[in-house]
Design a protein that fits this description.
This protein has 175 residues and is mainly alpha-helical. The chain has one domain: Four Helix Bundle (Hemerythrin (Met), subunit A). It contains seven helices and two strands. The protein has helices spanning 2-35, 54-73, 81-84, 90-109, 113-117, 133-157, 168-173; strands at residues 119-123, 128-132. It has a two-stranded antiparallel ribbon with strand order 1-2. Helix 2 runs parallel beside helix 4 (90-109). The chain is globular, with a radius of gyration of 17 Å. Belongs to the DinB family. Keywords: Metal-binding. InterPro entries: DinB, DinB/YfiT-like.
């Protein structure tokens, strides 16, 4: 009986993390669709925040999703935009964040329950660790949610008052 309960929890957990990955891609796409209707000049306006504006915050979300996808796939992470700079256009950022989120989702959808529970390791100059793959995935998705909130707040500072709803419950009920 305990084994059945554990299996149900595992299946619910895998389903939830896979759905949350799809939600992340959906929310990033909604944010990009909204920002594409705004003046390109606003994307480079400097606003005090974790990152100095809309474009740089989006680049950070994209870069972080690139890094964590490599970690959970156990491949060499790509060269970091944060460390080496990003010289692309706003359209490059829009395309990059959407395609990266879709790639992350596709990978997560391909994982079995067992694969989600496998331990993976990473090592950076800042921190190293070993955790179940699902923990690192959840961290990355949560990180993107945090910074999407900053994008909306930066947008408000810049006078953008029509940000789309990207709450998880909205995705579940309407998305």
């Amino acid at each position: 009986m305990i084994l059945e309960t554990e299996q149900k929890t595992t299946l619910a957990g895998a389903t939830l993390i896979q759905d949350f990955a799809a939600y992340n891609a959906w929310a990033n796409k909604r944010l990009v669709d909204w920002l594409q209707t705004k003046s390109a000049e606003l994307m480079d306006e400097v606003v005090p925040s974790s990152f100095p504006g809309l474009k740089e915050t989006l680049v950070h979300i994209w870069d972080t999703e690139r890094f964590w996808l490599a970690v959970v796939q156990q491949v060499e992470p790509p060269i970091s935009f944060r460390l080496h700079g990003f010289n692309g256009t706003v359209d490059d950022v829009f395309d990059g964040i959407v395609s990266q989120s879709e790639a992350f989702t596709d990978y997560i959808q391909s994982l079995s329950d067992k694969s989600l529970q496998e331990y993976v390791t990473f090592d950076t100059p800042w921190v190293s660790g070993t955790q179940p793959r699902a923990n690192f995935i959840q961290h990355c998705l949560n990180h993107s949610t945090y910074h999407r909130g900053q994008v909306v707040t930066i947008g408000r500072v810049l006078g953008l008052t029509d940000a789309p709803m990207t709450d998880y419950s909205f995705y579940l009920l309407v998305g």
